[in-house]
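Sequence in, structure out. Go.
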Amino acid sequence: MLLQYHSENEISVGGVNHHGNRWINATGGQDVAEGDINGIKEVNMEQVYNWDPDIIYITNFTETQPEDLYENVFRGQDWSDVTAVREQQVYKIPLGIYRWMPPSGDAPLMLKWMAQKNHPERFEYSIEEEIKTYYDEFYDYDISDEQIYDVLNPSSEAAKY
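Output:
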C-alpha cells in the first residue's frame, strides 16, 4: 500500500493509475488498493484494516514516518493491527535529487530499492553501493556515506518542500 498523504485528519492512498502502483507492480509487489482506488483517494482506517497490507510505503509528500505508525501517534488511528505495522514493514520512500516516487532522475534506484523491500531474498545487493555507483556514473558525483544515509532516511521536513 502506498500512503500518499497522511496526518491525524487524513489517510490518502494511491491506487491504479498512480506512480506508486506502477512501482509496486514493476517490482513484483501487490498493491492492495488497486482494485478500489483510481489515482489518489482518501480512505479510513476500516478500509486499511480490510486491505491489511503486508508492506506500507510512505511518500515524501507527507511528514509521517514509519515510527509514527509503529508508535500509534495519530489520535483516532490504531495501526497496531495492520500486518505491515506489526511486522515492521513500513518504509519511507527515499529522497535523493528529488522524491523517488514520482518519475525523476533517481527512478532506476527506486526500482532497485523497492524490489529489495518486496523481495529481500532475491535482491541481496547493497542499496548503498548501488546509490554510490549510480551517482558516480550518472551525475559524476561522489556521494558520501552520510549523504546516502540521508537519502535512505529522509526527514519529515522534506515533505514541506
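Check: Residues 16 and 38 are 5 Å apart (CA to CA). The two ends are 23 Å apart (CA to CA).
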